[in-house]
Amino acid sequence: MASTPVIETSRLSKTYGSGSRQTLALDNLSMTVNRGEVFGFLGPNGAGKTTTIRLLLDLIRPSSGSARILGMDARDDSVDIRRRIGFLPAELNLWPGRTGNQIIYYMASVRGDSKGIVKHADELAEQLKLDTTKRVRDLSSGNRRKLGLVLAMMHEPELLILDEPSSGLDPLMQQTFHEMMQGYRDKGKTVFLSSHVLSEVQAICDRAGILRDGDLKAVETIDKLTNVEFRWVNVRFRDAIPDGLTAELRQSDAISQLDLNGSQATMRLLGDFDPLLRIIGQGYVEDLRVEEPSLEDIFLAFYSSEEGGR
Questions:
Q1: All domains of the chain, ordered by start, with CATH?
Q2: How far is CA 225 from CA 158, 204, 215, 255, 303, in A?
Q3: Are 158 and 134 in contact (CB under 8 A)?
Q4: What are the DSSP calls for 11-68, one per residue?
Q5: Strand, helix or coil at 87?
Q6: Quick check: 267 and 259 in contact, CB under 8 A?
Q7: CA 139 from chain center: how many Å?
Q8: Could you tell me if 178 and 203 are in contact, meaning their C-beta atoms sit under 8 angstroms apart?
Q9: For 82-139, what is each residue's pLDDT tens digit?
Q10: pTM for this model (two decimals)
């Protein structure tokens, strides 16, 4: 028998305002997040990710629809739910005059079993290289983010809900964060991670939901989401691009969005490199650079393929 989803929403919607001034922030969101997975909630700023999280935590109420967390109703059982989850908001507001240790001790005492929680908090702080003796006002934005992660994880909750968790972390700490999330999943726990950074989602998530303008476009495994068969290619020739070579680039089915500027050609390459290499081999290539598609590129490619019925 399949286990109960850790997160389950049914036609969850949120509208702000009234009449002609209504704004639809979330439109009939139905999805599930399973136990023991890292689920990426992916979308650009303003897509509705934070609204969804606030609804799940009963910080705001839905206009329609429902949500269940750990098998409980997100609205009726919100107090019990909060005992069993950890949360890191996108905007973290803590007491500026308190030290990290003071906040940790206070939060641990509220949750109970303060000795065990504080011990685990110390271990997390060591992993993140966070000095918890400093006051919050003296911490950098990255270190405040680390403190938020410690507070969210120190009681070893069954579910972590993280809104843009690595914002402000340097690359080394981002890698540490990724390792922590993978270890969390290995313990059979669940992470719901909101982000607009594809590289982060690709590094640690098992599945991702793609949200745009409040509408859930799809839920896919990361392998399927990132299997986009195009790249951006920039070629710089030694001399001006010959007319014949230009004509072949324009006519090639493997190339789209071609931009020519003197001796440089920038293009969107579909599929394999061989057709392009055969064409540009007619000239003297000084430099060739390849870039993976951006998050927005993948959004656009994914949406167009879905609309085309692929």
A1: 7-225 (3.40.50.300), 230-292 (3.30.70.260)
A2: 27, 14, 17, 22, 11
A3: no
A4: EEEEEES-GGG-EEEEEEEEEEE-TT-EEEEE--TTSSHHHHHHHHTTSS--SEEEEE
A5: strand
A6: yes
A7: 25
A8: yes
A9: 999 999 999 899 999 999 999 999 999 998 877 899 999 999 999 999 999 999 999 9
A10: 0.81
